[in-house]
Design goal:
The structure holds 2 protein chains of 2 kinds. Chain A is an alpha/beta fold. Among the domains of chain A are: about 5-80 and about 150-220, P-loop containing nucleotide triphosphate hydrolases (Rossmann fold, 3-Layer(aba) Sandwich), CATH 3.40.50; about 225-285, 2-Layer Sandwich (Alpha-Beta Plaits), CATH 3.30.70. Chain A has 11 helices and 15 strands. In chain A, a hairpin with a 5-residue loop joins strand 13 (about 250) and strand 14 (about 255). The longest helix of chain A has 16 residues, at about 165-180. Helices cover about 75% and strands about 0% of the residues of chain B. The relative contact order of chain B is 0.15. In chain B, helix 1 (about 1-10) packs across helix 7. The two termini of chain B are about 30 Å apart. Chain B has one domain (about 1-245). Chain B contains 12 helices and no strands. Classes of the chains: A alpha/beta, B mainly alpha. At the A-B interface, helix 1, helix 2, strand 7 and helix 3 of A face helix 1 and helix 6 of B.
């Protein structure tokens, strides 16, 4: 899990004066599911396109599987990388089977490799239909089958759950997990944490083109500073005393104070006691990962 | 070869087929329309049928036909994220460019063959002409297959660069007009233009516009050299552009 299959150094893309991705240092360990999160427009697709050399970085480097990714090396490296960027690919006037036949020809694959990929996304009963008659979810699954057929070492999927119903999303999670268990490294982007947080071993959070967090789920929780909740004898007085700290009175007559570390929390307790307010409960607010994600991406902090 | 086979699969249910068959048939019928309406026969037999069909075809419909085929072949790549998928495959840019150009040139070649067969059909069935067209016409058809390859590569490049279906066709129409004018002014020097090359070849032996009516070895050699050089230069340029081009964001 420690050797990186994807490594970027100060990866930056700018168009004129507009910076889309800034100094990105991605580190994706081999064999993991890497959840690449961020709101729409954060630069996720641009980053993925730079990884695939579909667009060239303004500055910075990309290294994939230990080799620099460039226009001269990309065709060699791309044989081991399956990808699905933005909308699912597929020729609408052809059937699913004909689309897979194209992939087979282009990549020199066997019929068995194609069949395995099609079965993995459970599309085997829809292969005689023209892709124009597919639902978005079916197109998405065909796109993933096309990416999977080459038995990639690295799979780069941009918002693969778009257009999938809840059952489809769950199926996708299971598929990604199974691929990772088989040794495939999966990088999957989403603007919704809930869609991938259960699947991802590692998370990278992008906001405004900058990486604001990269690490495990536990590290993400640890990196955030949940509010401190005080239970005391006189909540109204306590809220007044702590107004300078941004304190708020809750409906349960508790006082929450944001952004306190442990030392500051001790100081606040002392201040309350000094003002004659008895403190009989101090605890950290329980935040869901979603709340942490939302607060990080909204504030662009960390 | 695999890239070419993949391109051939994409031609299934393609709108390219009606163009390949319809354009030459319509032009041959249009060329013969007056005589068909008057119930007369062409004055110089096969030569007249050839001139009024292929002569006109070479002026600009041929270039427009190639352009339409180019736009149709590339249109599917500009849809959805097919461009991303194409450029994320291990197939080299050269292979992609050659395969696309070969498909467009191949369809264009089929168009020339159908044109020849249409001339044959209208001469025999509508005008009851005796014998067969001069073997020279068959040779010109074969030469036209080769001479239209640079135009096919160029239109493939334009349709690769432009998402628009119509703009590459408009470019072909204008460039074809300019190239015919250049042929009249500069003679064989205008063969550097792929459109000029196609027009010059179609008009060979017709004695109309830029042609004097007799086919010389020099003319044929100039056409073959221009076709070979044009194809190589345009394939290399298109490959370089594709290799360095960023996908749209």
């Amino acid at each position: 899990m420690s050797s990186a299959i994807v490594e970027t150094t100060n990866l930056t893309k700018r168009y004129g004066r507009h910076i889309v991705v800034e100094n990105l240092n991605l580190h994706i360990p081999a064999g993991c599911v890497y959840g690449f999160l961020g709101p729409n427009g954060a630069g996720k697709s641009t980053t993925m396109k730079m990884l695939l050399s579909l667009i060239q970085p303004s500055t910075g480097q990309v290294e994939l599987m230990g080799r620099p990714m460039s226009r001269s090396s990309r065709r060699e490296l791309l044989g081991d990388i399956g990808s699905l960027i933005e909308a699912p690919p597929g020729y609408a006037h052809l059937t699913g089977a004909e689309n897979m036949a194209l992939v087979k020809r282009l990549l020199g694959l066997t019929t068995e490799q194609i069949d395995v990929a099609v079965r993995a996304v459970r599309l085997q009963d829809q292969m005689t239909k023209q892709v124009r008659d597919y639902s978005l979810g079916m197109k998405q699954r065909l796109g993933i089958a096309m990416a999977l057929a080459r038995e990639p070492k690295l799979l780069i999927l941009d918002e693969p759950t778009n257009g999938l119903d809840p059952a489809g999303i769950e199926e996708m999670r299971t598929l990604l997990r199974r691929l990772a268990d088989d040794g495939v490294t999966v990088m999957v982007s989403s603007h919704l944490l809930g869609e991938i947080d259960k699947t991802a071993d590692m998370l990278g959070i992008l906001s405004g083109g900058r990486m604001i967090f990269q690490g495990s789920r536990a590290e993400l929780m640890a990196a955030s500073t949940p509010d401190v909740v005080f239970t005391c004898t006189d909540p109204h007085a306590a809220a007044a005393v702590l107004r300078g700290h941004g304190a708020q009175l809750t409906e349960a007559d508790e006082v929450t104070v944001p952004g306190l570390d442990d030392r500051q929390t001790a100081g606040v307790v002392a201040a309350l006691v000094g003002q004659g307010v008895g403190v009989f409960g101090v605890r950290r607010d329980e935040q869901t990962l979603e709340e942490v994600f939302m607060s990080l991406t909204a504030g662009g902090r960390l | 070869m695999d890239a070419l086979t993949a391109e051939l699969i994409k031609l299934k249910r393609s709108l390219a087929w009606p163009i390949v068959i319809g354009l030459p048939v319509v032009l041959v019928l249009a060329g013969a329309a007056t005589q068909l309406a008057d119930g007369t026969t062409p004055e110089d037999g096969w030569d007249t049928v050839w001139l009024q069909s292929v002569g006109f075809y070479g002026l600009f419909p041929l270039a427009v036909g190639i352009a339409v085929l180019g736009s149709l072949v590339w249109r599917v790549e500009h849809r959805g994220s097919n461009w991303n998928a194409l450029m994320s495959s291990p197939a080299s840019s050269l292979r992609i460019v050659v395969a696309k150009a070969a498909v467009i040139a191949g369809l264009t070649a089929l168009m020339q063959i159908i044109l020849y067969l249409s001339v044959l059909a209208i001469g025999k069935l509508a005008f009851s002409l005796e014998g067969m067209p001069d073997s020279q016409h068959l040779s010109i058809t074969a030469l036209l297959v080769v001479a239209t390859v640079p135009a096919a590569v160029l239109q493939s490049g334009l349709s690769m660069l432009m998402r628009s279906f119509a703009v590459p066709i408009a470019v072909a129409l204008l460039a074809s007009g300019f190239s015919t004018a250049a042929l009249m002014v500069a003679g064989n020097a205008a063969l550097v233009s792929p459109y000029g090359l196609a027009t010059r070849t179609a008009l060979l032996g017709t004695g109309s516009f830029v042609d004097e009516g007799t086919i010389t070895g020099g003319d044929v050699a100039a056409i073959l050299i221009a076709a070979a050089l044009g194809t190589v230069v345009l394939v290399l340029c298109t490959t370089a552009v594709l290799e360095h081009r960023d996908t749209r964001v």
